[in-house]
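Hi there,

I know you've been waiting on this one. I reran it after we fixed the sequence typo, so this is the corrected version. Both the input and the resulting structure follow.
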Amino acid sequence: MLSCTLRRLDDLQDHLEPLRGADSALLRSNDFDTRLDELHAIRVELARLPGVGHELARVSGALELLLGLLLDADTHGPDCANLHCLLSLLARGLTQAEETLEQVI
C-alpha cells in the first residue's frame, strides 16, 4: 500500500515539475517552486518508511522464533545469555524503527 502511495506522489511531482519556473504571475505569487521543493522533501522522508516496515517484519519473525524457543525451554532449559543477546538485538531494531518513524512523522 505504501509503495502505491509513494508512486502516486512521484507521479504527482513528475506531472507538476514542468511548471517549475513558469512565467506565470499566479504560480510565482503562490511560491509554486517552493511548494515543489517541499513536495520533494516529503517524498524523500516518506521513502524511508519501507525500510521501517522491513525492520519491523524482521523483528516480528525473530520474536516468533524466540517464542518457539521459549515454548521448547520446558524440556531443554533456556540459555539466558543467548536469550539476552537475541532480545538486545530485537530491542535495538525496534528502537531504530521507532526513531525513523518519529523522524518521518
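Quick highlight: The mean pLDDT is 86.

Best,
R. S.
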